């Protein structure tokens, strides 16, 4: 008996949405979980032709279930979460 892999929903805004061509996507996570700090590498691997995506994700902030995350090294995604990529905003 096998069950479907747990998934997260990743919301893309601004430059991240432009780079991926998506407003959001559902991404499977391993049953043991995935560190939020590992998510950018996984997203880049899913969008190899996305222009400048790695830089965009490196400079972005993250929220999980509408809560801003200060240190992605200490957040493990287990499945069911909504993760938002919050790109830097420029303006004057």
Automatic annotation (TrEMBL):
List of residues that carry 1-thioglycine: 92
Residues with the Glycyl adenylate modification: 92
Presence of the UniProt keyword Protease in the record: no
An example Gene Ontology biological process: Mo-molybdopterin cofactor biosynthetic process
GO CC term (a single one): molybdopterin adenylyltransferase complex
Domain of life: Eukaryota
Subcellular localization(s) per the UniProt record: Cytoplasm
Pathway entry: Cofactor biosynthesis; molybdopterin biosynthesis
Record-level Gene Ontology MF annotations: molybdopterin synthase activity; nucleotide binding
InterPro entries (UniProt xref): Beta-grasp_dom_sf, MOCS2A, MOCS2A_euk, Mopterin_synth/thiamin_S_b
Nucleotide-binding found in the keyword field: yes
UniProt KW keywords: Cytoplasm, Molybdenum cofactor biosynthesis, Nucleotide-binding, Phosphoprotein
Record note on modification: C-terminal thiocarboxylation occurs in 2 steps, it is first acyl-adenylated (-COAMP) via the hesA/moeB/thiF part of UBA4, then thiocarboxylated (-COSH) via the rhodanese domain of UBA4.
Description of how the protein assembles with itself and partners: Heterotetramer; composed of 2 small (MOCS2A) and 2 large (MOCS2B) subunits.
Family: Belongs to the MoaD family. MOCS2A subfamily.
Biological function: Acts as a sulfur carrier required for molybdopterin biosynthesis. Component of the molybdopterin synthase complex that catalyzes the conversion of precursor Z into molybdopterin by mediating the incorporation of 2 sulfur atoms into precursor Z to generate a dithiolene group. In the complex, serves as sulfur donor by being thiocarboxylated (-COSH) at its C-terminus by UBA4. After interaction with MOCS2B, the sulfur is then transferred to precursor Z to form molybdopterin.
PANTHER family given in the database record: MOLYBDOPTERIN SYNTHASE SULFUR CARRIER SUBUNIT (PTHR33359)
Protein name (Swiss-Prot/TrEMBL): Molybdopterin synthase sulfur carrier subunit
